[in-house]
Amino acid sequence: MSKANLLVAHGGGPTAVINASLAGVLAEAKRQRSVGKIFAARGGIEGVLKGDLIELDLSSADLEKLKRTPASAIGSCRYKVGEQDYETIAGVLRSKGIGYFLYTGGNDSMDTCLKLAEHAPDCLVAGVPKTIDNDLAGTDHSPGYGSAARYIAVSTAELCLDIRALNIQISVLEVMGRNAGWLAASASLARSLDPSFPAMILVPERPFEEAPFLAAAEKRWKEGKGFVVVVSEGLVDSNGNALGAERGKESVDAFGHALPGGAALYLASLIRSKLGLRTRSEKPGLLGRVSRLLVSEIDLEEAELSGIESVKGLCEGKSGFMIGFKRLSSSPYRMEAVRIDLREVANVERKLPPSYIAPDGMDVTPAFADYCRPLIGPDPLRDYWLIRK
Amino acid sequence: MSKANLLVAHGGGPTAVINASLAGVLAEAKRQRSVGKIFAARGGIEGVLKGDLIELDLSSADLEKLKRTPASAIGSCRYKVGEQDYETIAGVLRSKGIGYFLYTGGNDSMDTCLKLAEHAPDCLVAGVPKTIDNDLAGTDHSPGYGSAARYIAVSTAELCLDIRALNIQISVLEVMGRNAGWLAASASLARSLDPSFPAMILVPERPFEEAPFLAAAEKRWKEGKGFVVVVSEGLVDSNGNALGAERGKESVDAFGHALPGGAALYLASLIRSKLGLRTRSEKPGLLGRVSRLLVSEIDLEEAELSGIESVKGLCEGKSGFMIGFKRLSSSPYRMEAVRIDLREVANVERKLPPSYIAPDGMDVTPAFADYCRPLIGPDPLRDYWLIRK
After folding, report:
1. Residue B22 pLDDT > 80, yes or no?
2. Which of A17, A166, A194 to mutate to test the interface with B (most CBs of B within 10 A)?
């Protein structure tokens, strides 16, 4: 049986479990007899373009460590691959004897993956899902999301406890998520601790409306002072402009997407100026996608599994697919890994469906919580002792 | 032996371990035969003023839960006690038969404690230390600091990993700490993972100077692009004005202290506008003081111990003291609990000594890391797998 070399690369922002997917790829590649050398690209597709590949042969002990190391151990990038680049990449793959290529990333990366499959017909290509935004199509959810959602659920609950303890101010918590509200919505899982946590959840799927927002904030303050509002960084006004976004060329990424980041600060200022209530904001930002100690064990296992299943698919001769998850049951939670055609995934953004958004547009529904709960693992908010009022 | 009732109250912002101190107080009070009923004030000294006391008699199982519940379970406040209030408080204590009063808080609370000891001579009074800022005088460190420092050390390391993985931008991480840089300084413990983490640490003890800061940022970028700057929220310019602070009456607390909060955003804007480099900011804010899953076990034990020792002191007939910690050895870490006269503590702010600040004012020294390391517990950054460049 002839062997071919394997190459794995990372695309886009890292997550808390992207290295678990990498560990899955490396472990399965070692097991497959059709795989020769195992390479990783340093710094993502830019590393491939430059031929900056390193051979990896990790021991079982190192693979276990890698699994629990947050952020990308091999590096990633946000470079947008141009038409002229695909021939260069195909050339590098040929010269290094690469017959299997795995690209771990989100929507943009899956598009790259698909085009590469067309330009390098001698190489089998698979996408390994990765996004904290949970906006990849064709799959129930994506590795990286469960851990980021757990971080937000726990952080929201703890922030609500802190705000209630002093009860003198409002806090607006800003959560990542460019165009989809999956991550902000996970704040609703804080309600396992107290059904009043948090007061509102604002997602990018619904344009922000000032008057009802301020009315709701004022009402909640009158009911008992301090509370928490969770807002997605990608919240937009009715004209589609990001709330409080800073403008300028440094605020746009390589794909031309605006980089928001001022939504919480904007809402806090709005409440202070229009209602005269003391309001602050918190923005854990990137911390929400790299926290190792808040990783969801379910997410970690599934991330590793997606790496393993991707290599298995390639070694069966399949190409042009991404591993996804099909949910069989929510309680108890059961799912199976499936192969999804990259054409269904590339450049498609999956947003929160209307059934997960409350009618007033300022919260999510219990149906969303039922969807999300199993993904963050066992309830991290058990065993608190609180005075019930 | 005649019994007297005991009252415990919380003052100022909560921490991740303030409930562990409460659990220590409640457990030891149950053991002491001279203690009658055990009361807690709801909502801090405001609860005492209103006579809003609840009797607490927790089981061992509930005490264990309470120990690991972040933020104040009984509530706190930021009310500044006026001269006229002390007689009201003394009256409440008399009417409820309170012979032992414990007040858990920072500098301001210890001042309240001291004055109360003068106004209520029939009640024995003790301060229980609590501050994430670590600025209480007379003690090696204060409960709450070790856990907040662990949060910052871990968060800084993880943010540095994330920034290095993509290597396309700078991040400015804002850390709590009004006038003292102890908490920002703890970011230096991220260097156990990589000595280049983080690039700079800016503390309020040294006024910010724009030119050397920008020169250092530019130099670091040229050496290898992305890096992290850690900044204390209380950073001031040479005129003593908080960097990027929002002004207005909602930005000042009950003690007249300005509430900063814009330092990271300010520095990120400065780097973008003056150097043209892509820069973002993260501000976990209150999340840094309530994270249960990042609690330092050493801090948790010491918080509980400070509650226990406070009750013991009162039951020995002592009054007007705060429990503090005297360090006997850093390696191995050994300390003993001591009683400190409240007059040494009230209203004194302990700042970072010059020996802990680097000569250029943009970092802390290895001596600080030696001081801080034992307080965060076993290195949470062990067992990562990284490609060494």
Report:
1. yes
2. A166
Total count of residues recorded for chain B: 389
CA A355 remoteness from chain centre? 21
Cα A42 to Cα B221, B249, B387: the distances in Å are: 19, 51, 10
Residue B94: strand, helix, or coil? helix
Element (H, E) at B171: strand B170-175
- Testing the interface with B: which of A267, A277, A293, A296 to mutate, by most B Cβ within 10 A? A293
Taking 90 as the threshold, does the pLDDT of residue B255 lie above it? no
Chain A residues within 8 A of B72 when measuring between CB atoms: 165-166
Q: Using one digit for the tens of pLDDT, what is the confidence trace for A103-125?
A: 999 999 999 999 999 999 999 99
CA distance B221 to B223: 5
Q: Could you give phi then psi for residue B184, rounded to 5 degrees?
A: -60, -40
Q: How far apart are CA A362 and CA A199, in angstroms?
A: 9
Contact B36, B100 (CB under 8 A): no
Which of A69, A162, A285 lies closest to B386 in CB terms? A69
Which residue among A166, A246, A286 places its CB closest to the CB of B171? A286
- The confidence band for B1, taking pLDDT boundaries of 50, 70 and 90, is low
Complex ipTM, two decimals?
Answer: 0.94
State the pLDDT at residue A316. 98
Please, are residues B67 and B147 in contact by the beta-carbon 8 Å criterion?
no
Q: Would you place residue B388 in the very low, low, confident or very high pLDDT band (cuts 50, 70, 90)?
A: low
Distances (CA, A) of A367 to A184, A185, A355: 15, 11, 7
- Just list the catalytic residues of B: 133
| The model's pTM | 0.95
What is B203-230 written as a DSSP string?
Answer: -TTS---HHHHHHHHHHHHHHHS--EEE
CA angle B98, B102, B106 (to 5 degrees): 150
Beta carbons within 8 Å of A319's beta carbon, 6+ residues apart: A117, A123, A124, A125, A126
The pair phi, psi for residue A105, each rounded to 5°, is 180, -165
Residue B259's pLDDT is 47
Side by side, the strands of the sheet bearing A200-202 are A200-202, A228-232, A170-175, A279-282
The answer to whether the CB of A304 falls within 8 A of the CB of A69 is no
Nearest CA in chain A to B20: A385
* Residues A114, A116, A122: CA angle, nearest 5 degrees: 115
What sign for the dihedral angle of Cα B209, B212, B215, B219? negative
